[in-house]
Amino acid sequence: MLTALNTNGDDQETLVVVFLRGGADGLTLVPPIEDDNYYRARPRIATAKQDAVRLDNLFGLHPLLAPLQPIYTEGHLAVLHAAGSEDDTHSHFDAQDFMEHGGEFAAGGWLGRFLRYRPRPGNAEAGGPLSAIALGSRFPECLRGAPSVTVMQSLDDFALGSNTTPITAELDRLYRTQPDSLASAGRDTLNALARIESMRNNVYTPANNAAYGTDNFSQGLKQTAQLIKARVGLEAVAIDLEGWDSHFGQSTVVEPLMRQLAQGLAAFYADLGPAIHHTTTLVMTEFGRRVQENSSFGTDHGSGSAMFAMGGGIRGGRVLGKWPGLAPATLTGPGDVPVAYNYRNLVAPVLSRMGAGPQLKSIFPDFAFNALDLYS
Amino acid sequence: MTLTRKHFVLSSAAALTGCEKLPPALRPSFRTLEADTGSFSAPASDEVDLISHVLARVTFGSRANDYGRIAALAPNQQEAIHLWLDQQLAYESIDDSKLDRAIRRLECLHEPLGELFEFKPKHLLQQMTRAAILRATWSERQLYEVMARFWSDHFNIDSSKGDCKWLKAADERDVIRPNALGNFPALLRASALSPAMLWYLDGRANRKQQGNDKPNENYARELLELHTLGIDGGYTQHDIMEVARCLSGWTVRSVKQLRKGAVDFQADQHDDGEKLVLGHRIPAGQREQDLDHVLAIVSLHPSTANHLATKLCRHFIADVPPQAAVDAVAQCFLTTKGDIKAVLRTLFAHPEFLNARRTKQKRPFEFVVSALRATQAETDAGPALTDYLLRMGHAPYQYPTPEGYADRSGPWLGTLLWRWKFAVALSRNAIKGTTINLETCRKSFGRDDNLIAHLLGRRPDAAERHAFARLNSSAPDGLALVLASPGFQRC
Question: H/E element holding A240?
């Protein structure tokens, strides 16, 4: 029987941020199959209308993203097209930094600031020991400035070390009798360690026959689902899916990634079951690709791309916003999908719902919000 | 500068990150300091005595020889502490050559402003972090280093914002450190004109060229709210706007301009009309002197005295600072016109300070450094070590918003897991670039009980003694337990 961790609360809303690094092509992920300009610009690499998985009277999903269709139909997945940031450098590094910091001159990362500012049950000032996790080997910029982040490749990263059971037992005795906040902080930490320990010792069977892949992205989401269900107080997760920079032979570059993305998210959705209601997943990329395909069956750095929001009580089953179209006069820069929707306007309603509404101006400084209506 | 120069800087920065592979004698740019050796005395009472108390608050934690050295200054502890604090306040006379040798190769500490831009930001931040840890760990001028960290938090600048990537190194060196035990108005003025601060709080973008230009109020607001008067200090939104007008036109050259990092006053971007700040009229036509008018109004304002006294007392006495001490410190601040040494003298002499034994919890930086100091660790303060600080959310120069790292225990309660992991890794010598010699530690204190008393600043209680005894078959884990225990989290 699990007991609630003191500071984190078992009904904790969890935010999972998936970053598609390398500039993922929104026109491939979610092709506008009723826009003739799309087919004119992409004579060789467009998705044929009959191959796409239709979402509405304009857009379809790439066929490899078909596993996402049921989530969309069930109302737990929304798409935002022509989305991105105001960074126009077309540089991966700059654009990723911009998006993760939440502005060119923002200090630290937006997810880090969110974790500093978000309200918590009982007015706790900090999340629990397992509140923020970055999956992978590096510390992502979006989590800079967060209190207490674990960069995790496996659950072993949470262990104190090998053979630490005797120390843990003594720490339990010593912290238990403290007269102040150290007692509850010690108890929370020991509980978290115990839960992680039992997770490590038991083979995890995903619920509802969720079929995760063997790739790192799927495995990361599987561990995330496991932690969410173990109720260890997980507040935010950052996970990357890298390699979307498809200048050359686009299909061979992005098709394996789309398989991983779709399989991972679909398995995560199935596995979470009812926990999907308090787990919001946001998928973003630093920029999209040029509308016109290039001579080597690829696309070059562009601007607007697609974003996804899944779960957490959103009203999905729709493509948000108004499609600006791909008419030559509409395109920006060297021929890019314009950024009709700033990514912050999709993130903001999610953070507001988690109670950080009054702090939005600190989380995303110097930004005039025009938040999208994600929930009604 | 020449290419050769740039190449030299970059290659030695690279060497800093890769030098761990070389044997110590061959490391080109860095070497660790050796542990103190000898035999040392430990606190002998069950409760934290005066020397242990002052060491816990006024330093980054006791080194092996600290307790004995202070005790030897005078026949009784009060007198010894009095003499020792006098020494610490006269920090310029304390020989720190050992530390100087250790950090001499950290170029960011010496490079002229413009040449800081030659660094890769990542390497520069690594060097700055290294310097902060090594100074806290090794400096004999402990109070001075504690105050440098205090002011670095008070005038917080996140090095990840814009050109602060390069300029924060200059701010720490040219603004914070020269004034850390100086006087507050001088520190405040240096900060107001710090290139990094002009970037961080957007002062550089505060200009009025045309009639309808709105000044950028960011710095003006934080100047009043955080740096001087405090949030309840009695200013209004109108005061903020007037201060912003006074400071308009001060800017800093960006990395893309000539004379990068230079601070200029641009008269054509200054609002030169009359202003009214906190009831004081500043006549029109004063140009750059508006800045000094504003600072004269705010730097020694009674609200500023109260705000700074509150923060100092929170830092040195308790999370909820006792009013009597705050009042005494604020009074001294006003009488001495912001003399930081005098203010600290008053604080350290106050009964509320002297009696506040173990009422604070160490923050992660203090926890890590105090563990290094207590165990006589040799460390390169490299990435493997600083990773722990990053994961506990307390790496120097990386707090995103202007209020600086919190100085209360609440926001840090979620960091125990990483403290424990650090305690185990340090004790088992599992942190790359950081080593301890447990046997030397044990020998120099004679008995393990004395070593524990040194670590905790008092004799262990029955529960601690039993817990340690049960683990004693594995000495590194015994040490890990003490470092991870509640007693070692307190100061």
Answer: strand A236-242
